[in-house]
């Protein structure tokens, strides 16, 4: 899981430090069929790629890091000779959009309005505490050329591939992608399996928005749906329910401590999140998640919210 951290950190700085400093050469793309005509491509901790593959071509969900683009392309060639028709970004983070410039030479990129804005301007990402990165503006050719406010549907491969916007969750531009015919959902980083999630409070993310997004997605999905998390192996609706329970419980215990007048340091010292310590990881440990909850609930260190069109 340290790799996730490293890759994420490195790639947010990818425009500051040459990409070749990071050894992507050993990364192997793992391709697996999820259900129906949807595949998942994994590459060593980077954001999971979803791919609808059929007679009409490929619809790609996210495209990981730029140095991996050739490998992603090769992996797709192993599934089909058909062309990429569209790419949808679940959110702006570079471990999900790094291949944009490469793939937009082949097909248009679609994303929620705020994804384009954040890629265009660059800026701070982090939990308002000890997790912080600066992202440089993405090059023009990496910007999604089709954007939407609330939702968009791509009708290809006998599927109604629907990207639905959920405000202020992992970031302020998250979409969850539904493949109803194949019975698959790509959750973006609103649902991850590496432990406590990273919430980009500085880019308009919030714990309450993430809870709402996951709860709403669960309520809309059939019980046997296959779930592609932003990071981690294919999961079930029950996995999402456990995750949601953890999000709510940790939010509630922090909200109560705030009500009781506790400071962040006092909460850390009291090990407020100890009952959920199995979620503490190398990427987001217990203290980091507590900072996230604290900053999100107090609104103290949240970043500038990007105004909608
Ligand atoms: Zn992310």
Task: Describe the 3D structure.
The chain has 309 residues and is an alpha/beta fold. Helix content is 30%, strand content 22%. It has 9 helices and 14 strands. The strands form 3 sheets. The chain has a 7-stranded mixed beta sheet. A 5-stranded mixed beta sheet has the order 10-11-12-13-14. The chain has a two-stranded antiparallel sheet with strand order 7-8. A hairpin with a 2-residue loop joins strand 10 (151-156) and strand 11. It is globular and about 60 Å long. The N and C termini lie far apart (37 Å). The relative contact order is 0.14. The model is unreliable at 1-7 and 9-20 (pLDDT under 50). Bound molecules: zinc ion.
Keyword list:
309 residues, alpha/beta, 7-stranded mixed beta sheet, 5-stranded mixed beta sheet, 9 helices, 30% helix, 22% strand, disordered N terminus, binds zinc ion
Low-confidence stretches: 1-7, 9-20
C-alpha-based Rg, rounded: 18 Å
Mean pLDDT across all amino acids: 91
Strand residue percentage: 15-25%
Main sheet characteristics: 7 strands, mixed
User: In DSSP terms, counting alpha (H) and pi (I) runs of 4 or more, how many helices?
Assistant: 9
Q: End-to-end span in angstroms?
A: 37 Å
How does the overall form come out from the CA principal axes? Answer: globular
Secondary-structure topology with pairs:
Blueprint: H1 2-12, E1 30-35, E2 38-42, E3 49-54, E4 57-61, H2 69-77, E5 84-88, H3 94-97, H4 100-103, E6 109-112, H5 113-121, E7 123-126, E8 132-135, E9 146-148, E10 151-156, E11 159-166, E12 174-179, E13 184-186, H6 207-220, E14 226-228, H7 237-259, H8 264-269, H9 286-298
Helix pairs in contact: 6-7, 7-9
Zinc ion (ZN) is lined by residues 91, 93, 96, 170, 189.
């Amino acid at each position: 899981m340290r790799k996730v951290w490293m890759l994420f950190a490195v790639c947010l700085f990818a425009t500051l430090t040459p990409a070749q400093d990071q050894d992507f050469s050993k990364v192997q793309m793992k391709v697996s069929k999820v259900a129906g005509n949807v595949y998942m491509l994994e590459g060593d901790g980077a954001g999971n790629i979803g791919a609808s593959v059929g007679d009409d071509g490929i619809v790609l969900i996210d495209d990981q890091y730029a140095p991996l683009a050739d490998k992603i392309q090769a992996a797709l060639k192993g599934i089909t000779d058909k062309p990429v028709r569209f790419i949808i970004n679940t959110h702006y983070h570079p471990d999900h959009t790094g291949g944009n410039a490469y793939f937009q030479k082949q097909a248009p990129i679609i994303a929620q309005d705020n994804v384009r804005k954040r890629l265009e301007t660059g800026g701070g990402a982090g939990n308002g505490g000890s997790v912080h990165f600066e992202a440089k503006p993405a090059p023009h050719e990496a910007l999604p050329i089709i954007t939407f406010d609330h939702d968009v549907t791509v009708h290809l491969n006998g599927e109604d591939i629907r990207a639905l916007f959920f405000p202020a969750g992992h970031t302020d531009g998250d979409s969850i992608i539904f493949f109803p015919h194949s019975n698959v959902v790509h959750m973006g980083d609103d649902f991850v399996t590496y432990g406590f999630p990273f919430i980009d409070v500085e880019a308009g993310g919030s714990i309450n928005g993430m809870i709402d997004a996951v709860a709403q997605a669960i309520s809309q999905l059939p019980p046997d749906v296959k779930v592609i998390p932003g990071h981690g192996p294919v999961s079930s609706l029950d996995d999402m329910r456990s995750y949601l329970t953890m999000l709510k419980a940790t939010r509630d215990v922090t909200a109560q401590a705030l009500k009781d007048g506790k400071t962040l340091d006092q909460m850390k010292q009291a090990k407020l999140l100890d009952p959920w310590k199995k979620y503490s990881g190398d990427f987001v440990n217990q203290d980091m998640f507590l900072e996230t909850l604290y900053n999100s609930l107090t609104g103290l260190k949240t970043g500038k919210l990007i105004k909608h069109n």
